[in-house]
Task: inverse folding
């Protein structure tokens, strides 16, 4: 059963290779894509329905276990944002919660991240997947939060 992964934020899709962090750019975490978000206060949405197994102010992992195989999607809000220790992020749910695809998870302002000297680029990674497990992966163009971003076969 394929799993549709939606864009958690609105912005310009740039693909993983253009993320200004080699761990993401070289797909060491896993395959996926990335979005350079619009510089407005907004909410990062859950890219899939599932359980929030990890929730930090700057990143979260949602796992879909309805297919019999756990498939987790990581959303990382900006690069090196762990150093902010939560400043500028507002959690809207709790770790362990079951969330719907498109449900708001974190409120943040990418402009503030950029003003602080960090990249607001958001990698969206299929954890534990191989590149061949993904289809229809957007690598360029504009997306609105909730738009299709990729499919996990």
Result:
């Amino acid at each position: 059963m394929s799993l549709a992964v939606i864009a958690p934020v609105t912005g310009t899709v740039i693909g993983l290779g253009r993320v200004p962090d080699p761990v993401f750019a070289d797909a060491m975490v896993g395959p996926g894509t990335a979005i350079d978000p619009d510089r407005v206060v907004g909410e990062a949405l859950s890219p899939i329905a599932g359980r929030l197994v990890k929730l930090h102010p700057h990143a979260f992992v949602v796992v879909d276990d309805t297919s019999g195989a756990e498939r987790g999607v990581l959303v990382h809000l900006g690069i090196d944002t762990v150093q902010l220790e939560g400043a500028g992020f507002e959690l809207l749910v709790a770790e362990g919660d079951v969330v719907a695809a498109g449900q708001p998870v974190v409120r943040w302002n990418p402009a503030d991240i950029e003003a602080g000297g960090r990249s607001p680029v958001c990698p969206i990674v299929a954890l534990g997947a191989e590149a061949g497990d993904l289809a229809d992966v957007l690598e360029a163009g504009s997306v609105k939060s909730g738009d299709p971003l990729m499919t996990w076969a």
Observations:
- The CA atoms of residues 20 and 32 lie 15 Å apart.
